[in-house]
Amino acid sequence: MSLNAETALRIADTPLLWTRLARAHVDGIAAGTAPSRALVVGPAGSGKSRVMRHLRRALTAQGTATSLARGESDIAAVPASTVLMIDDAHLLTPAQIAAVQSRTGDPAAAVVIATRPGPLPPTLQQIADTLERAQSAIVLGHISRSDVQVHLEERDRRMPRACVDDILALTGGMSWLVAESLSVHDSGECAGDGAHGAIGDALQDVIAHRLRALDPATRAVVEAVCTAPDDHSPSVAADDDLLGSAYAAGLLLRSGQPVPAVRAAVRATLPLDRVIALYATVAGDSAHEASVRQLLGGVRDPRVARVLQSHADAARQNDPVRARELYRSARDAGADAATVAIRQAQVEWSLGRIDAASAFLDGVAIAAEHPDHDRAADVGAAIWAARGLMPMSDAVYRSSVHRTAETSARAAIVALAVADRGALLSDAVAPPAQTMPSTLTVAMDLLTRGMRETLTGSAHEALHELVRAAEMYSASGSSDAIPELPAVIAAVAALNVGEPDVAHSVLDQAVHSGHGGAWASRRLLLWRAWVALQQERAHEVETALQAIVPESRSLDPREKLLLDALSVAIARRYHDSAALASAWRAARESLLRARFDVFSLLPLSEFVVAAARVGDVDRVRPHFTQACAQIERLGAPPLWSSHLHWAGIQQGILRARPSDLTPHARALVAAAPHNRLAAMMAQAGRVWTAVLAGSVDVEAIETAALGLGTVGLAWDGARLAGQGAARTEDRREISRLLACARQLHPRDEGRPTALEDTGPAPVSAQPRAHSDLSTRELEVAALVVQGKTYAEIGASIFISPRTAEHHIARIRRRLGATNRSDLIAKLRPVLEEAGSEERDESAAESSTSSAEPRRKRASA
Fold first, then answer.
1. pLDDT of amino acid 491
2. Is the predicted pLDDT of residue 844 greater than 70, yes or no?
3. pLDDT of residue 558
4. Lowest mean pLDDT among 105-119, 453-467, 497-511
C-alpha cells in the first residue's frame, strides 16, 4: 500500500467529532434508508470533507457507486444512479454550478454536496434549496458535551466532565476549536486552571493564521466584534453578509458573537496598525472605543497619539468627559505635552472645572509660536474673567499677537470690559479666513461690531447686532472658553437701553438652546433672575436663588458676586431691614475680592444703593470711583454709564446729600438724547429733586414713576411715588400716588413709611389670614370668587381692568395659587374669616351702643 493510501485510510479511520444528528443522517444515507440526495453544511474546520469521505466509504462498502467529479464535463457524464459527491461547492465556478444545477433538476439523480453556510451565490442557493426538499441538511459546526463524550469513547480516552465544560466554554462549541483543544489537552496536568489557560495560548496562533487568510472586509468585522465590549454589537458589524462570512470561516458563532478563544486571540495578536485603523472606524461608539483604546494602553507611538488626539478633538464639544479620557491616553501615547495640556484645559473649562483648567495651563510652558497659543490665551483669559479679574484677562491677550478672528473677538470683549476704548476700536484685525465663514466666526464678528457700536453709534443698532450675535453663538454650539457670554453682553446692553423684555427673551432663548455649553448654564440663570428682578417677578428670582444657593460654594467668584447682588437686591425690595442687613453681611466677602468691569456695573449699582441703606458706603466707594473712571475712559457712552449714574443719584438721595447728585444728574441729562433709559432717569431725577425740596406735582411724579417702570426700574418708580405721597397732605393726591406705587411694585403695601428711603416694609409671602390682604384686595377677592372678569371687577369698584389684573396677580402670588381654581379655593376661607371678623366687630359696636342708654339711665 502506498504512503498516500495509508494516510487516507488512517484519516478515515480516525473517529469524527460531529453531532449525533449529523451522524444519524449520514448513517441513514449509507444504509439506503434515506435518499442519496443531501446537503452537508458547516463552517470552515467543521469536518465537512471528513464526513464526505466517511459517507463515500460507507456507500462503497454497501455497493453503491460514487463519483468525485470536478469539471463541468465530468459532472454531466456521471450516471443518475451514481452518487455524485462534490466537496467545497462554494468554490465551484459558475459553469460547474450550472452543471450541478442541471443534475439536481433530475429527481432520480443522486447528489451529495458539501458547502460552507451562506451567503451563497443565487444559483448555488437554489441547488441547496432543492436538495433540502429531499432531506434535511446535515449541519455541522456546534458540538455539545455528549458529542465530545462519544468522540472520546471512540478514541478510548477519558476526560473529567469539568475539563469538557471548560473547553466547550472556551471554544463556544465550535467543532474545529474543540478538536484542536482536545488534541492539546493533557489530563495529567489539569488539576488547576493552568492547563486550560495553556489551551487558549495554543489556539492563538492558529486563530491568527485563519484570520489573516480572510478577505479584508470579513477580517475587519471579526476584529471589530472581538474588540467590542462583552454583549456589545458594534455598528461596523451590522452587515449580515459579513457576519455570515465570518461564521462560515469558523471565527464567529451563528449569532455573530465571538467565542472567548477567538476574542482573546484577536486581542492578543492584532497588529498595532490594525488597532489604529480599527479605532478610527469605531469613533462615536464610546463603549467600543474605550475597549479598543485598552489595546493601545502603554503604547507610545506617534500614530497612536495622533489618532487619540484627533478623536478627542472631535468629542470635545459634545462629550467632554470622553474627550478628557482620550486626551489623557494621547498624552500617555506620546502626544505633545503642551498641546494636550491646552486642550485638556479646554475640556475642564467646558465641564465648569475652572481650577482644574488653570492647573493644566500652569503645568506647561507655552511658547508664543505654539500652534495652539490662541487656544491657550482664550482659556487663560476666560479663567481670569471667571475669577473676577478681567485686567488679568487683558494682560493675557496683550502678551501675544492673535492669529484667529475668534481670538481677536474674545480680546475685544476683554477690551470693552476693562474700558480700553482704543483697543476695542483698533483697526487691527486677524488674518482673513482661508475657508468659508463658520457660524461661530459670524457670531464673533457680529459681537465685535455690536460692542464697537455701543461706543460710537446708535444704542439700538448696537443692541440689534448683539442680539444677533447671541443667537448665532447659540447656533454654533460652541462651549469653548470665552471671557463673557454673548447672551449676557446682549442682555446687559438691553437693560442699559431700557429694554428688559428683550433681555429676558435673549437669556431665555440662550438657556433653552444650551448657549455656551454646560459651564454657562448657572451664569445664564443668574442673569435671567436679574432681569426678572427688573421686571418685578420676585417669585422667579427667589426660585432661582433657592436652586443656586445650595451650590454657592462651588460658584466661581464672578457668579458668587452676582448671586450676592441678587440676594441684596431682593432683600432691599421685598424684605425688611434685618433681612437686608443679613444679605449685606453675606455679600461683604465677595465685595472684598471683587473687581468690577463694565459688564458687572449693574450688580455694582445695586451694591452702591444698598450700601447707603445699611450705612456702609465706605466699603463700595473705591469700586464706585473706579467704575466712574472706567466709564470716563470709554468716553462716557450712554449705553454703559446710565445705571451707574442712577446709582449715584440714589445714593445721594438716601444719604440726604443733594450735592452728590449733581455730577450724575448732569451726566444723565447729557446722555438723554442718545438713550431712552437715560432720558427717563434724567426726568425722574429732576422730579425726585423737586419732591425732596417739598414740591409735589402729582402729574409729574406719576409720569416720571411710570416712565421708570417702562425701562425696568419699577421699584425706583414706586419709591418716587411713595415719597411724593409722604410729602403731601392732600388725601386724593396721597391715594393717587400710592395707587401708582402699588401698580409699579405690586408686593408693596403702599404705606408712605414703607416707600420712603428706609425701604419697603416686610410682607408675608403666603398669607394665612385675611389681614395679609389690603381692604382693596379683599374687595377684588370677593369679586373674583363671584366669577367676574377684569373689566367687570374694574366697573364694580371704579378701577381700570389693568389695575384689577395687577391686584389679582398680587393676591395670587401672596396666596401661592397656581391657577384660577386654586386661587378661588384659597380665597374662600380668607373671605369667610374677614366676614366673621366684620360681624364680630359689628356685634361689639351694637352691644356698646345699646349699653350706653342703660348706663345713662342708671346714672340718672
1. 97
2. no
3. 94
4. 105-119
- Residue 258 gets which letter from DSSP? P
Distance separating alpha carbons of residues 507 and 484, to the nearest angstrom = 14
Q: For residues 751 and 726, give the distance between their C-alpha atoms in angstroms, rounded to a whole number.
A: 9
CB 578 within 8 A of CB 607: no
The answer to whether the Cα torsion of 170, 174, 175, 176 is positive or negative is: negative
Which of the four pLDDT bands, split at 50, 70 and 90, describes residue 764? Answer: very low
Distance CA 320, CA 522 (A): 18
pLDDT digits (tens, 9 = 90+) for 545-568: 988 988 888 899 999 999 999 999
CB burial readout 191-207, b (16+ within 10 A) else e: eeeebbeebbeebbeeb
**Residue 374 predicted with pLDDT over 80:** yes
Q: Model's pTM, two decimal places?
A: 0.68
How open is the CA angle 361-365-369, to the nearest 5 degrees?
105
Q: How many helices (H) and strands (E) does the chain have?
A: 43, 5
* Mean pLDDT lowest among 68-72, 359-363, 397-401, 585-589: 68-72
Q: How far apart are the first and last CA of the chain?
A: 161
Cα 748 vs. chain centroid, distance in angstroms? 41
Closest-CA residue to 77 (of 103, 106, 114)? 103
Average per-residue pLDDT for the chain: 84
The answer to whether residues 572 and 556 touch, using CB atoms and an 8 Å cutoff, is no
Neighbours of 847 (CB within 10 A): 10
**CB distance 751 to 762 below 8 Å:** no
Assigned C-alpha cell, 519: 459651564
User: CA nearest 251: which of 281, 212, 198?
Assistant: 212
d(Cα 772, Cα 765) in Å, to the nearest integer? 9
Helices (H), 655-697: 658-671, 676-692
Check: CB of residue 221 under 8 Å from CB of residue 242. Answer: yes
User: What's the rounded mean pLDDT across residues 685-701?
Assistant: 91
Say how many C-beta atoms besides its own lie within 10 A of residue 795's C-beta.
Answer: 15
Give me the mean pLDDT over the 261-282 stretch.
Answer: 82
Burial class (CB in 10 A: 0-12, 13-18, 19+), 234: buried
Contact 327, 360 (CB under 8 A): no
pLDDT tier at 427, thresholds 50, 70, 90: low
Give the whole-angstrom CA distance, residue 163 versus residue 324: 44
φ, ψ for residue 138, nearest 5 deg:
-90, 100
What are the structural domains of the chain?
Answer: 3-139 (3.40.50.300), 145-363 (no CATH), 372-693 (1.25.40.10), 770-859 (1.10.10.10)
Residues in the chain: 860
Please tell me whether the peptide bond between 431 and the residue prior to it is cis, using omega within 30 degrees of 0: no
Cα separations in angstroms, 17 against 39, 140, 173, 192:
18, 10, 11, 26
315 is written with which cell numbers?
468629542
